[in-house]
Design goal:
Layout: E1 16-24, H1 30-33, E2 50-54, H2 58-75, E3 79-86, H3 102-109, H4 114-124
Length: 130
């Protein structure tokens, strides 16, 4: 998509690229995972903006996506939203990241889920009846 975005007759007016960066807690060190510093570095080839947002905050994710969509609509250019989060259970049923990253996974496992945290936040703010 990035390779063709500037080629005449292939223009589509930009795309919104949503990257779920769950590298936090990933068992492969970042220096062994790719040849660039960030998963969104491919966007540098077309100078598209990159918005980073914390996946623990659903309303902030929505805000970032709205900004991205408005940018795409106004400028007809690509934009990347990187949602930073973590894997709670590893890649698959055989992967146990607590074996390679025990301290990090002790912290991750002590956390409530994003939906539970968001629900508690809504209750505290009085936006729910239950």
């Amino acid at each position: 998509c990035f390779n063709m975005c500037g080629v005449p007759h292939f223009e589509i007016g930009g795309s919104l690229h949503l990257v779920i960066n769950n590298h936090i807690g990933f068992t492969t060190p970042v220096e062994h995972a790719r040849s660039s510093s960030y998963c969104s570095d491919i966007g540098k080839m077309v100078s598209c903006p990159v918005l980073h947002v914390n996946g623990d905050h659903p309303e902030e994710v929505v805000k970032a996506c709205r900004v991205a969509v408005n940018y795409r609509l106004k400028f007809d250019k690509d934009v990347i939203v990187v949602m930073n989060c973590f894997r709670k259970w590893g890649h698959n049923e055989l992967d146990d990241p607590s074996m390679t990253q025990p301290q990090m996974y002790k912290l991750i496992n002590s956390r409530s889920s994003v939906p539970d945290n968001y629900w508690n936040q809504l209750q505290k703010s009085g936006l729910t009846d239950e």
